[in-house]
Amino acid sequence: MIEHLIPILAGTFGAAVPLIFAGLGELVTERTGVINLGVEGMMLIGAIAGFAAAAETGSGAAVGIPAGALAGAGIALVFGFFALSLAANQAACGLALTIFGIGLSAFIGQHYISYSLPGLKPIIIPLLSDIPVLGPIVFKQDAVVYLSLLAFAAIAWTLAKTRLGLLLKAIGESPEAAHAIGYPVISIRFGAVAFGGAMAGIAGAYLSTVYTPLWVQNMSAGRGWIAVALVVFASWKPARLMLGAYLFGAVTILQFHAQGLGIIVPVQFLASLPYVATIIVLVIISRDRRVLQNNLPASLGKPFLP
Amino acid sequence: MSTSVPRLELLNITKRYPTIVANADVSLSVMPGEIHAILGENGAGKSTLMKIIYGAVKADAGTIRMNGEDIAITNPAQARRLGIGMVFQHFSLFETLTVAENIALVLDEPFDLAALSQRVKQISERYGLPLDPDRRVHSLSVGERQRVEIVRCLLQNPTLLILDEPTSVLTPQAVEKLFDTLRQLAAEGVSILYISHKLHEIQALCDRATILRNGRVTGTANPREESPASLARMMIGRELPVCEAPPYLGERRPMLTVQHLNLTSAGPFGTSLHEVSLTVHSGEILGIAGISGNGQSELMAALSGEHPVHKDAVRLDSKPIGHLNAGTRRAKGLVYVPEERLGRGTVPPLSLSRNALLTAHRHGMKHWGLVRYGKARDYAEECVARFDVRGGGAGTNARALSGGNLQKFIVGREIMLKPKVMIVAQPTWGVDVGAAAVLRQALLDLSRTGVAILVVSEELEELFEICDSIAVLAQGRLSPAQPKTSLNAESVGLQMAGLFPKTPLTVHAEFDHASA
User: Fold this and answer.
1) Number of C-alpha atoms within 13 angstroms, CB side, residue B472?
2) Range of the domain at A90
């Protein structure tokens, strides 16, 4: 029994990586009171930028993922210019960014349809990977999986324990008060938006250079939207977001296996399961509206100009 | 410490905005250990001047000197490094953070909450400002929040402390405590700039006063040697207007009755109402004192009909109306002047005549379902003329009017509806002295025609001026209403802190107990 579970659980980590990066990035952005609905678009731009860089240099994901992060951050700054500098409606800017990202990535991607990349080999951690059951699940993963765990730890620690984390939360609650005591609210929000973009870019580049090392048009397949939903249902808490991401990853892998077993259910139905299951579970977890309201950044989505 | 060099000197400070000159040629100086008042009406330029000193606004011209040296203050962080601390009128606190976290965000030092909590405790004990550093700000009373602001300033060892209208949210007892703290600070050499429009406070606390009117200095005085009348003349340029309250001689019957009203607040930081009961008679003005956030907005929602409640909880002229919505209540003769003038009392980008239509449409402004704009314009013009609304006519947008003139329009619009009951929230909040006098007199005149009026206000002086009886709302509970003549600021202040019996009683023995 356990032998069958090991590949499923091991696969969960990889399947969860895009949601972890995109979700953590959006979580940081939203903590400062900015909602960027362009995550899907930023992921796709990160995916094609990462894929193109990896293919052109021949260096694979080692170049592709940083390139995806840069492209994601760059396009997020365009969002920032409209939504922060010009105080335009954040929801509208984010939707525009998503539509733009889908179109631009498809356009650039035409050149790369027939390419394929080598992907990433798992890093087998000595000793630890020999632990029965746990070893093959946790300690034989690719570098980006370990990086996603590091990113989670660093972000959770920063938000909970440092002055920067406190400041991000404070700005999300009341940009007016933060401005009154002398913080550069717009600059800090720009930083958070760029960080969110870079993280979404990494998520996209992981998909195109590691997870399925191919370029497929619209390959993020709604994961950006799930990431946005995850942030809300996780009540802006990194640990809950991880839970949601792993749930999504586990159901994704399970339904692949189910497809393989030849269960007579339409493939489209199985493919929709991760999305449905994640949303249902998270809605149940976050059914306490008071928790949601207490953690909601009070200025979320509201334009602020000093 | 040198006594001849002023701690702060302002020389010919000028600040122009596109439509007004906020400060024109303002000069003043504050010595070490001096408590210096900046006295002026709303819009006189006090707040702009303080923001210039604190680096939040840049002056167009003029010089700022600290301890004899010319300085340029470009942002609040720099002002803090120079030893300038500011306690804002509208607090700049973060509700979901703890007291210690709020304070940590303004300090230029390594982030260590545990050590900071210790220092917060020490300094709050030393100055008689008790605070729990681990409490979240949203659970604090307004007075406690102000303490956070003050302690936050004190931790930066300021040599100049600016307080902007600090007492507008405090009970009379809390004001006394604050004054003790400020006197202690001044005795230690801290200079204090105290901004206010309350004459008696300035006379009680300050060594010197600079009086501003329309952005210009109209006088410098020792407030203890002046009379309130002479200070008021410098502040508003004429005599302090007085309201006339003739006795009501007509029939007296209950017009608005609230019985056992319970309301759970919708928001996470709201206050729920517990067993609120009150009666307003025809020809009577009942005042509800208390600090905002003690259930005022919930009570207003329940009375105006924005939040319908149990049918029998609210009665208008003995008929149950608790279940009715705001429009139906208005049709039955209950009108409401909300606290927010722009957005609730009026629609800001609409003209006054369209705004008149909003509540007066039942009075002949509709014909076969079509709007008669001419009638609406006539109504608005009559209101503008009758209630001395300056700054525009029926075609002017609501947002173009000053606070006082807009409030005169809103109150006038409701008075012209010939209501049975009027509910008014913060009738003169942010309104200049002249307009406030017009508004108070209008309410008094209306009540003497037999209308029952309920006034919710944070300003005790205002309630004592116009009300016949006063009740206090504290933590969602309402004290029994008592005739104004049996109350004073001190007894009302004790009730504001929640010191009254939990079951409202109407027997008169109660207030002997409360004021004892």
Assistant:
1) 29
2) 2-295
Query: Is the pLDDT higher at B503 or at B181?
Result: B181
Rounded to an integer, the average pLDDT of A290-306 is: 84
pLDDT at residue B503 is higher than 50: no
Q: Give CA A123 to chain center in angstroms.
A: 22
Q: What pLDDT is stored for residue A1 in this prediction?
A: 61
Assess if residue A202 is contained within a domain: yes
- Tell me how far apart the alpha carbons of residues A11 and A19 are, in angstroms, rounded to a whole number: 14
- Quick one: pLDDT at residue B513? 40
Distance from CA of A220 to the nearest CA of B (A): 35
- Residue A207: CB atoms within 10 A of its CB come to 27
**For residue B123, pLDDT beyond 70:** yes
Q: Average model confidence (pLDDT) for chain B?
A: 87
Question: What are the chain A neighbours of B104 within 8 Å (beta carbons)?
Answer: 163, 166
Least reliable range by pLDDT among A214-218, B125-129, B189-193 = B125-129
Q: Average pLDDT of A238-259?
A: 89
Please report where in the chains the tokens 């300690």 appear, as a residue. A139
Q: Which CATH architecture has domain B1-83+185-237?
A: 3-Layer(aba) Sandwich (3.40)
**CATH number of the domain bearing residue A40:** 1.10.3470
Q: Look-up: residue for tokens 């608790």?
A: B322
Closest-CA residue in chain B for A176?
B92
Over residues A77-103, the mean pLDDT reads 95
Residue A153 burial (CB < 10 Å; 0-12/13-18/19+)? exposed
Contact B76/A181, CB-based, under 8 Å?
A: yes
Name the CATH superfamily for B264-346+415-515: P-loop containing nucleotide triphosphate hydrolases (3.40.50.300)
Average pLDDT over residues B429-443: 86
Q: What angle do CA A145, A147, A149 make, to 5 degrees?
A: 75
Residue A209: inside a domain: yes
Contacts of B242 (CB under 8 A, 6+ apart): B437
Q: What is the pLDDT of residues B50-85, one digit of tens each?
A: 889 988 888 999 999 999 899 988 888 889 889 999
CB B429 within 8 A of CB B411: no
Q: Where in chain B is the domain with CATH 3.40.50.300?
A: 1-83+185-237, 264-346+415-515
Any B CB within 8 A of A298 CB: yes
Put simply, the answer to whether B76 touches A180 (Cβ < 8 Å) is yes
Q: Which two tokens stand for residue A21?
A: 């990066």
Any idea what DSSP says for residue B124?
H
Place of tokens 């550093």: B133
Domain count, chain A: 1
C-alpha–C-alpha distance, residues A157 and B321, integer Å: 54
Closest-CA residue of chain B to A163: B111
What's the gap in Å between the CA of B178 and the closest CA on chain A? Answer: 22
Average pLDDT over residues B315-330: 94
Predicted local distance difference test score (pLDDT) of residue A28: 97
Domain presence at residue A302: no
pLDDT score, position B4: 77
Q: Which residues contact A204 (CB under 8 A, 6 or more apart)?
A: A18, A22, A42, A43, A44, A45, A46, A47, A48, A49, A50, A68, A72, A220
pLDDT at B502 over 60: no
Residues of A in contact with B75 (CB under 8 A): 182
pLDDT: is B18 or B261 the higher one?
A: B261
